[in-house]
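Example (one chain per record):
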Amino acid sequence: MLSMKTAYVGVYETWADWEIGYLLVELRTGRFTGEQWNVVTVGETTDPVTTMGGLRIVPDMVLADVEPEDGDLFVLAGSAQWDEGGGEAFAKTAQRFLEAGVPVAAICGATAGLARAGVLDDRRHTSAVKEYLLATGYQGGDNYVDERAVVDGDLITAGPDSPVQFARAAMQRLGLASDEKLDAYEGVFHRADPSAYPALVG
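Predicted structure:
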């Protein structure tokens, strides 16, 4: 039997729970992909953190113990820390994952953290708006794409208004579903299109 793949999820104070909720549910349950993943929460310490929605999370492990070769995806959500100039350790870990050829998925404020770390300078990416990333002083403005979600090699990025597209882009990059099923997924969860449901569950 094949061992389950692992998604490491960075968790920190004011972690924006809704932004990556769609993605985590599809990875953990495999309800539309047929493939269940381990979802492992990672904090700078094992001290509990409280999400923006008020949920208390105790990290499964510490960031210092995370090795790219042990995982198949590294996920980063937005939080107040990114806009306060924090999150450097998580951005450095994302860089290590990308250098090792392991996908990284970052949404909302996490894209600003990657921008500050230079991760976006040479990769196509998106975020809330281009000006948000330009304020970090990064050099990647020419690679900004005004789309809901963008995949460039092993990097998946999205803005805060696009959690469904973020999940879709990550599943596409990971090869978890066909384009037809992913179209249906976005149809059901973004457009509330009942005609897409049969293709999603079929």
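Caption: Residues 88-99 form the longest helix (12 residues).
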